[in-house]
Write a structure and sequence with these properties.
By secondary structure, the protein is of the alpha/beta class. The protein has a single domain, classed as Rossmann fold (3-Layer(aba) Sandwich), CATH 3.40.50. It is built from 7 helices and 6 strands; from the N terminus they run E-H-E-H-H-E-H-H-E-H-E-E-H. Strands 1, 2, 3, 4, 5 and 6 form a 6-stranded parallel β-sheet that branches. Strand 1, helix 1 and strand 2 form a beta-alpha-beta unit. The radius of gyration is 16 Å and the shape is globular. The two termini are about 15 Å apart. About 40% of the residues are buried.
Length: about 180
């Protein structure tokens, strides 16, 4: 079984990006499953707190999920033309201590998707993630891009994907990413 861990960069209850992850888990190829991990409860990174208390439990849970995965799928919002602070903070924590970074990210297949109410989708946020993931040693999948523009028209009030064209694009994207992950 190929396991992909999805991480939403939004904490909002009816998040478009969490809804996109949920939809990504539907209709996956045979032998592939998507497990959604949370960044909720991860404190702001503070080196002094790390020195005093070690890795917080919420970070340890996220790291365990990421280490056990065959691939990682980030669903990133775009805030002020960039990456969301809560998701970047979670990735910063996941790379701690530096000796763990290779276990979490090293040569791990990573894909990035996103949904935004704007007209450009999450193109700038996705571009900003590229050097971060390269620095962490992840193996980025460049076989496709998935950005949902004007997400308010593609999701219902509870954050569920309702647009069939977007769902089809997402299934095609996930089949390509799953094949990349399986190739190792």
């Amino acid at each position: 079984m190929t396991k992909i861990v999805g991480i939403s960069g939004s904490l909002r209850k009816a998040s478009f990006n969490t809804g996109l992850l949920i939809a990504a888990g539907e209709g996956l190829p045979e032998g592939v499953r998507l497990e959604i991990a949370t960044i909720r409860g991860i404190p702001l990174y503070d080196g002094d707190a790390e020195d005093a208390d070690g890795i917080p439990p919420a970070v340890a849970a996220l790291k365990t999920a990421m280490i056990s995965a065959d691939g990682i799928l980030l669903a990133t919002p775009e805030y002020n033309s960039g990456i969301p602070g809560v998701l970047k903070n979670a990735m910063d924590w996941a790379s701690r201590p530096p000796s763990d970074s290779a276990k979490v990210f090293g040569n791990k297949p990573v894909a990035i998707i996103g949904a935004s109410p704007g007209n450009l989708g999450t193109i700038l946020a996705q571009n900003h993630w590229l050097p971060v993931m390269r620095t962490l040693g992840a193996r980025l999948w460049s076989g496709g891009r998935l950005m949902v523009t004007q997400a308010g028209t593609a999701f219902d009030a509870e954050g569920r994907l309702t647009d069939d064209a977007t769902r089809q694009r997402l299934q095609t994207f996930m089949a390509g990413f799953a094949a990349f992950v399986r190739r190792g």
